[in-house]
């Protein structure tokens, strides 16, 4: 009975119902897109770290994120190799460089140089070409998302990195960079040539732990035996990089605030409409009170209105959100909207609408049943 009364209350004024649903849809879309941007950017900041098999990362002292660090000397690499528990250690390079387009123009890129034999730090999600092709001098792999940005139409074409020829031998799909500089994967030796680092320099040492060795214990052992370096497990370094880019640069907070505003605006619209609907039916609620209906019965009617508005508004809202995310991805934006986020957003929408209903509940609790007989 409560559900039937709630639906009749909502459907009584179709225009007001449309305003309510518009508010819910707006809130769902805004939260989904801003939340998706936050998750997409966060994932992009640490995607290379999280897609390596390395258990431990060694960097120069004071490193704040994956993208910007000082070079290490090769002797650090040999010191790491001598630590008990290290099954394998490989040199790794991450450096910014200039990419000269074949048709003219310049772009900044982030050169990622890894050891071809071990594959630690190699590109993933290959769609054309092969990683083995990087064994040839001056070859690179880029993501197909950045072909136009880098002035390339496909594999086999060449550009210049730091005034040195770079031939594209492979393409990946979906490896986005948080910075505006696309990742360019290549062999360690090619990376040395492209970045003008000295032959005895590198930027990271990637480490595989021996079977049965806890990465955290190995991290502590390396930190104790190798001086002037910072040592992290893979998870720790990924979190450190995410925190740096999302919260120390202000980018993440802006997205969180925007998503929060969507929640507030949607809640206010729903609260206002539910309150107006309640006021329209105040005599009916008063009649129910005069007939002996308890407060809990009236609460359930208002809650049912809120939940109905949440469900009906959520469906088109999440559908529109996925459409916008799909269109944005095609345009190069890094937005992630997973099914888990969609489910979580459903419950968040219900909570938002139920919370908004408390404004109406507060009004109903103060109804005087005598108003029915006074003709109020």
TrEMBL record:
Membrane spanning residue stretches: 21-41, 243-276, 297-319, 339-361
Alphabetized PANTHER family for the sequence: ABC TRANSPORTER, MEMBRANE PROTEIN, HEMIN TRANSPORT SYSTEM PERMEASE PROTEIN HRTB-RELATED
Name of protein: FtsX-like permease family protein
Domain MacB-like periplasmic core residue range list: 18-224
Domain ABC3 transporter permease C-terminal: 257-369
Membrane topology (UniProt): Multi-pass membrane protein
Subcellular location: Cell membrane
Keywords: Cell membrane, Membrane, Transmembrane, Transmembrane helix, Transport
Cross-referenced InterPro entries: ABC-4/HrtB_transporter, ABC3_permease_C, DevC, MacB_PCD
GO cellular-component term (any): plasma membrane
Matches recorded under Pfam families: FtsX, MacB_PCD
């Amino acid at each position: 009975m409560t559900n039937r009364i709630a639906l009749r209350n909502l459907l009584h004024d179709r225009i007001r119902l449309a305003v309510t649903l518009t508010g819910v849809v707006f809130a769902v879309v805004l939260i989904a897109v801003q939340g998706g941007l936050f998750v997409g950017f966060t994932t992009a900041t640490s995607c290379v770290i999280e897609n390596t098999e390395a258990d431990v990362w060694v960097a120069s002292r004071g490193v704040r994120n994956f993208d910007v660090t000082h070079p290490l000397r090769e002797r650090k690499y040999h010191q790491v190799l001598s630590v008990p528990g290290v099954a394998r250690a490989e040199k790794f390079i991450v450096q910014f460089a200039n990419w000269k387009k074949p048709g003219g123009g310049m772009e900044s890129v982030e050169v990622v140089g890894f050891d071809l034999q071990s594959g630690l730090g190699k590109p993933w999600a290959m769609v054309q070409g092969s990683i083995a092709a990087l064994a040839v001098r001056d070859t690179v792999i880029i993501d197909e998302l950045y072909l136009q940005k880098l002035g390339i139409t496909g594999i086999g074409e060449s550009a210049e990195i730091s005034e040195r020829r770079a031939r594209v031998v492979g393409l990946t799909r979906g490896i986005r960079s948080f910075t505006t500089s696309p990742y360019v994967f290549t062999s360690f030796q090619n990376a040395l040539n492209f970045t003008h680092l000295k032959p005895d320099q590198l930027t990271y040492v990637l480490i595989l732990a021996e079977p049965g060795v806890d990465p955290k214990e190995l991290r502590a052992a390396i930190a104790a035996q190798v001086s002037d370096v910072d040592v992290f497990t893979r998870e720790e370094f990924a979190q450190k990089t995410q925190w740096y880019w999302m919260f120390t640069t202000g980018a993440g907070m802006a997205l969180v605030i925007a998503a929060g505003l969507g929640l507030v605006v949607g809640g206010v619209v729903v609260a206002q409409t539910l309150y107006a609907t309640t006021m329209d039916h105040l005599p009916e609620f008063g009649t129910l009170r005069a007939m002996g209906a308890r407060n809990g019965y009236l609460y359930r009617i208002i809650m049912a209105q809120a939940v109905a508005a949440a469900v009906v508004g959520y469906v088109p809202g999440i559908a529109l959100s996925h459409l916008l995310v799909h269109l944005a991805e095609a345009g190069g934006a890094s937005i992630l909207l997973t099914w888990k986020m969609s489910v979580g957003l459903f419950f968040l929408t219900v909570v938002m609408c139920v919370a908004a209903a408390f404004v109406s509940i507060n009004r109903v609790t103060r109804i005087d049943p005598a108003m029915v007989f006074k003709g109020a």
